[in-house]
Task: structure prediction
Amino acid sequence: MQRADCCAIVGAMATTKTIDIRTEIPGPRSREIIERKERVVAEPLSLTFPIVIERGEGATLTDVDGNTFIDFTGGVGCLNVGHSHPRVVEAAQDQLERFSHTDFTIVPYEVYVNLAERLCELAPITNAKAAFFNAGTEAVENAIKFARSHTKRPAVIAFEGGFHGRTLLALSLTSKTHPYKAGLGPFAPEVYRMPFPYEYRGVTAGEALAALERALVTQVAAESVAALVIEPVQGEGGFVVAPKEFMAGVRRLCDEHGIVMVVDEVQTGLARTGKLFAIEHYGIEPDLITIAKSVAMGLPLSGVIGKAEIMDAPPDSAIGGTYVGNPVAQAAALAVLDVIGEEDLCARASVLGDQLRQRMVTWQERFPQVGDVRGLGAMLAIEIVEGEAKTPAPELASAVTEAAAKQGLLLLKSGIYSNCIRVLTPLTLSDAELDEALAVWESSLEAALG
Ligand code: PLP
Result:
């Protein structure tokens, strides 16, 4: 090849590249802001990446030093439609100019009703009603309130590896001790924790279901249980997918004993798994669904969607709060639903998921430390282990994510042992960006795992 041709090819490739790293990571401006942060921001708010964002667009994020990254963290799964989607920005701006707040229960607004209508229509629940809040943790807390009012029972069942938030009841349901719970008790009473099926670590669907049935004999009377809270794919727990037969068994037990089945879709929801709601993969109807994160492109909005007779059970004003359904976030959410439909992001999630999984399987074949590849749709993770005993290797996982960040790809860990590396990329990621991200991920695995 002649030199001129070669340069032309390199030039063409350079223009299609998204990642653009111009400084050492962190760059000088990021470092300066982080130093200021250390002086005035409470220490527990520690940082995963030492970079300070200037702007986000689609699947990319540019820092204050002008470095551009591909963002596989998506603000921890809040950006299924990508950063700053123009449709969503316009809808939120328009609403903000008109009014920003009244408290819906004091002076109501139509955007709340519009969003409730849309979500009740879309959710796989017949005769549904909705209520809105801010964070995922509030949606979970309120789901339990609805269930307790409806059943007049106290107890709640949750699962090992589950994550449901950080306020008291939700934190009591959350199962990872460090860093979330240790030293922060006492926790809310009447929470019972069951094994979650996790084939890779030896818990089958049959065993988990048997343990649940046994617990209703040995731990808590079925007629005392108000709700069972379950993630179809455990998010913080390491993208462990609930098998179909397990979900079907859970539904059967809830029906048998009048227990409200709460499906926590805070992380799985809004197209991430290839369906608008992950529970649609299972062909069962839950009683309540909690949503948050991607519903409003990261603006604080959460909700409970559920069977009308459960949602109507609490007495007047027993559900509420100053910020029950911010109109700006709700206008954004309506635009998010438009974008998911018009850009067919459910189908895109499936395609991305197939491509990611194929590549991850090649890593599993090549690197003994890539112990498991799992997930649903574009909600995929690899689990990093050492040796025959599958010993969790969180430090190796960190070495991979740190190497990736230096090369312009932001990856997030999860898992009860913090040894999984998960994908929460915007679903608007282009094929070229996916290729680029996978190349960086692979070279980071080579660097960290050898
Ligand atoms: N439920 C699930 C499944 C989650 O993944 C999370 C957060 O990661 C929550 C609830 C809590 O949401 P938030 O952090 O918005 O309170």
